[in-house]
Amino acid sequence: MPKQRFLSFIIGTAVEAIFFSICLFSRDWLFAGFFALFLIRRLSVSYKLDKFIKKSGLL
Questions:
Q1: For residue 39, which of 51, 47, 27, 49 has the smallest C-alpha distance?
Q2: CA dihedral of 36, 38, 9, 44, whole degrees rounded to 10
Q3: Angstrom distance (rounded) from CA 33 to CA 47
Q4: pTM of the predicted structure, to 2 decimals
């Protein structure tokens, strides 16, 4: 993964986590669920990437 894509992935995840926590604490359940789905998707992608990197022996 190129460095620029990695940084945008991290920034996007942080922004989604911030919006998720704001919605959660303001009790806006619909948008909290919406951002939770995005976070779950990003976490699953990062898990698969980590699994692939460990399996291939790159690190």
A1: 47
A2: 90
A3: 21
A4: 0.73
Going by pLDDT thresholds of 50, 70 and 90, the confidence category of residue 8 is confident
> In the structure encoding, which two tokens stand for residue 37, read together?
């789905």
Contact status, residue 31 vs residue 23, Cβ threshold 8 Å: yes
Chain-wide mean pLDDT for the chain? 88
Tokens of 47: 């898990």
Whether residue 50 contacts residue 9, with contact meaning beta carbons closer than 8 Å, is answered with: no
pLDDT at 28: 92
Mean pLDDT confidence for 42-48 = 88
Q: Where are the beta strands (DSSP E) in the chain?
A: none
Rounded Cα–Cα distance for residues 13 and 40 (Å): 10
User: Which 8-state DSSP code applies to residue 57?
Assistant: T
